[in-house]
Structures
1.
Amino acid sequence: MKKYVITNFGCQMNYADGERFSAIIEQIPNFSQTDKLEEADLLILNSCSVRQKAEDRILGLGRLMEKLKINNPELKIVLTGCMSRRNWAGKDSKSPLQQTQTQREEELKKVMPWVDYVLESKDFHKLPELLGYKIENRIDDYLSFKPNLSSTFQAYVPISVGCDHFCSYCIVPFARGIEICREASDIILEVKELVAKGYKDIVLVGQTVNRYINPELDIFGKGLRGNTRIEGLNKEMLTDLSKLPRDFLQLLQIIDAMEGDFWLSFMSSHPNYMSEQLIDFMAESKHIRPYLHFALQSGSDRILKRMNRRYSAEEFLKIGKYMKKKIKGLGLSTDIIVGFPGETQEDLEMTAKLMSKLEFDMAYISEYSPRKGTASALINDDVPQGLKKKWKRYLNDEILAKTALGNNQKMLGKVYKCLIEKNIKGDSNLARTGNYKEIMFKAKDKRIGEFIDLKVSSVTPWALKGKAIQ
Ligand code: SF4
């Protein structure tokens, strides 16, 4: 029996891909998964390029990989995910979109000579043949593989991959290619099976998930992303393929109409596609969690324009306020970049002001770092590192911590339906509320993956404590 290890380095999409890669490998007879690197005959590095730090983690693996290969000379190392599509050649080379995969692979192996094979995620189905195994009835689309789910209650379902927004700082359109949407019938079937198996936390994922358009119906390639509801949705329509959902809102409608006790959420949303119709539906749905992650990045129009985000701070604020008004107890999180080229104290204050107005529960604040190949990497990275750190601390400690605490205090003494995610130690458990807050509670009979009612007994900006209601 041969062993393989898959190591995921990135976001939910990366994690969801890893579960499909595992299913592809297990088509090969006598291959089983392990989490022990020293046992591996095949090691899959499912890379992420969004931040330099994520790439550095893989680039820094050289010594460990060489040691593993000395211990097991048969070990094969495969690099997949975002880094497999990056341009590793010098500054004057072609853009990654113009390079062939062979050129990219040659350049990558100069930087990471310990890698045996380089495979883009979309080509991962070719791995068995690359390793010398013949597969009968080969499936050519990796997203069509039934994932080897690693959780018994939580599942990430990719509905689209790639992005064609080209925000000036972002490597995703180069690393993952332009947006491709999965067929709605495949998505619906996958979710139906998950619900039937009792999965409680189903997350639809995509780089701009709420821009989804069903390719089965998008015959002209342009697509209507109008977020128009299916009127009078009934049970018969759920099985009638001629009534397939056309866009994201309709996809949510179909999934929300499924019977079962489960939560539905989606990430990451782009502000430009958060229509009022979509928000209205979230507010009245049976299964959609009162939670949304949508990325602000900056509260300054000048910086948003340089980032090529294609919305203004005012537009973002308007949609954010509408959401908070409509969806009771909404948990709202965002992404912020500090220290973008040309950003001033005045720009930062605009971000701080907008964050305060929308009272975010969480913000993933990152210090800007230029990603080679993107438009903003051509602009002088002129904000000193020390200042980026100071701005990050300011937004986190003086703005976010206050709004998060204020929101959490409003939850004190109230009872929430929560999903038990893990046992910490002894009788301490970690659960999550529908609006995505972590909540610790004590109980002897830990029932991971089940819902429980918890009364919030104490709060900090970042976590809650609660008591089980019998
Ligand atoms: S919307 Fe912008 S930030 Fe998000 S993945 Fe696409 S290019 Fe990157």
2.
Amino acid sequence: MIAEKYAEEIKGIIARFPNKKSAVLPLMHLAQHEYGYMSQEAMREVAEILDLDPTQVLSLSGFYSLYYEEPVGKYVMEICNDLACALRGADQFVDMACRKLDTTVDATTEDGLFTIKTVMCLGACDRAPMLQCNLKFEENLDEGKFDQLLARLREEAVSEQKSPSIVEKIVAYAK
Ligand code: FES
């Protein structure tokens, strides 16, 4: 239960908003971090904490691409293939990334580490091809840099289970 595990963080996030219901997005991030995706249980918990109807949380989850309604890999690579990025080779980059990971868009690799998604503009059009991986931008990518990124993430996955820094980021995001 995130209400118990992250009681202090939740209290701090809610305190930053004049109306506690406005804390829904960071709390959804927290729940997703805990459960790996916005499971029904995660939605119910967030709704309960904020006195919302679970369908309100569900509708937000469906609207924003950063919330996942199905299980995803430890690292979600959201590659922008919107117009500006497409003009700088984003579609070819997506194909290359899928080939390297032996996967397809919206699928998760067999080791559970990576999910590739395509998304609309992330606001870094001049640094394409680019992707957002677990809230961190990786920009001006090419095949070599993608290989380095995969190697770094695989190494990181071995050395840690769930980074507490993600929780810190979620709390900071609400400031
Ligand atoms: S079009 Fe890709 S970041 Fe803007």
